[in-house]
Batch of 2 targets.
Target 1
Amino acid sequence: MVYPSMFPTGQTAVDPLEAAMATVRSFCGWHVAPVIEQDLILDGSGSLSLLLPSKHVLDVSGVTENGTPVQVHWSASGILRKESGQPWAPSLRGVTLHLRHGYEPEEVGDMLAVAKAVEARIRMNPGGNVTSYQAGTQGQNMRAGSVPLFADERRTLQPYQLSWGV
């Protein structure tokens, strides 16, 4: 939906559901859903394990380290190790791979419920004016461009949140 009177010429509003999903994905640190395929370039870790930007890996293929193909073992939780047992070289942008990961939408109904709740708050405040929300002991201020997550929403999303940086 576009709100032309609220944006300078040439700017349009972001779809509220897209903004809500972006908030959820930002909190989680990865896209979560749906299942997607990506070609990634990662920094080598210098350790035995390389942590992927995912908590639900379905397939890893085409792994190279500094241009040399590497055979790997991987876990569904996003840990990648060389079959050789050797550590990853500590090379910046040294590891490339093809990754299939994420959840089907029907597997993450709780995450989608949080996104819908955030979307509802965005729709209540489409112009981005400062608005305060209070529910019992929880309160949030929503300013232009911000989309708050309440404490219970953050708890709901914790199982999907990456606990490491990549």
Target 2
Amino acid sequence: MLTHGGGPQASNVRRAPSSRRCGRLSALQVATYGVLAAVALVCGYVESLVPLPVPVPGIKLGLGNVVVLYALVAFGPRPALAIMLAKVCASALLFGNPTIFAYSLAGGLTSFCAMALATRWRGLSVVGVSMVGGVAHMLGQLAVVAFVLAPHVALGYLPVLLLAGLASGLFVGYVGRLALRATGSSSFMKGWRRRLAKDRQAPAGQTTGRQAKDGRETPERGVSGDSH
């Protein structure tokens, strides 16, 4: 089960700038988002090996969602959505089943939409955004429970799962905030993010300065998709 978290934070959320000028993803973007998706998948798998000692099945800390939260704040909603979908699909394919996929997809999509909207509220911190996502995730999964089993079953789990979403989401939010601070103060990560920003803002087919240096004047080939 995917979860998120929330809590107080001194600074507000700064959303990554959106760019619609490029119709392709550069190799650097594909590599970066692919690595993040792989890290999210590994975190989710490791977490599944150590279930929490709680009476309600499926409650987890949601370590993989730290990566989704990080991508949402650092790179914007489109990369974060792609990473979340890759994590959910790969996890269900490798370690789950159709039922787990339905629960994870419903919770992940509901959580993502709620967090993407929450980032537009300038007064809300990163941890607060994560808390909104945690609650929305539980509501999304409870909707599947109501559809598959019965509405009264979902209502019976509602109080426990909402509290679990807030608690585990609080953890995810603080870990995500630490990750954002750590990468924000790293000179290597600053340079990496500047290069990603240039790739996102460059018009399609434009030769980058690095390509011109290396003598490659042909436009860089990318993977079809939306750039952010």
